[in-house]
Amino acid sequence: MTQRHYTLAETLALVEDLTAEQLQRYIRAGVVVPVQSAQGPLFRELDLARLNLVVDLAEGYHLDEEALALVLSLVDQLHGLRGDMRAMLDAVAREPVETRVRLKAAIREVRVTVRD
After folding, report:
1. In a domain, 79, yes or no
2. pLDDT grade, residue 10 (50/70/90)?
3. What share of the chain is helix, strand, coil (3-state, %, to 5)?
C-alpha cells in the first residue's frame, strides 16, 4: 500500500486556518518533517493530522512553536507507549491461563505498592 503525499499547496488547502508562514515555522521547529522531493516538500497523512492538532493547540492555548514541539513530543511518546502496551497485552494473552493469573496478581500487587 503506497502512502499518499500532499504538496505544500494541497496541505495549506486541507489544513484549515494554516498559513504558509505558520507552516514554515512549524517545519523549522520540527513539528512536522516533510519529505523533500524535486517538486518541493511533500506531506504525509500523519503530517496533516499533526498540523490539524497544532493549529487547534496554537489557537486554543496560544502555544509558541517550542511549546507545540514539546506537546507533540509528549503525544508521540504516549502513542509509542500505547503500542508497547498493546504488544505486551497481546503477548500475555498468548500465555497459559496459569501464567496470566499469576501476572494479573503480580500487577495488582505492584500497583498497590506504588500507590502507597
Report:
1. yes
2. very high
3. 70, 5, 25
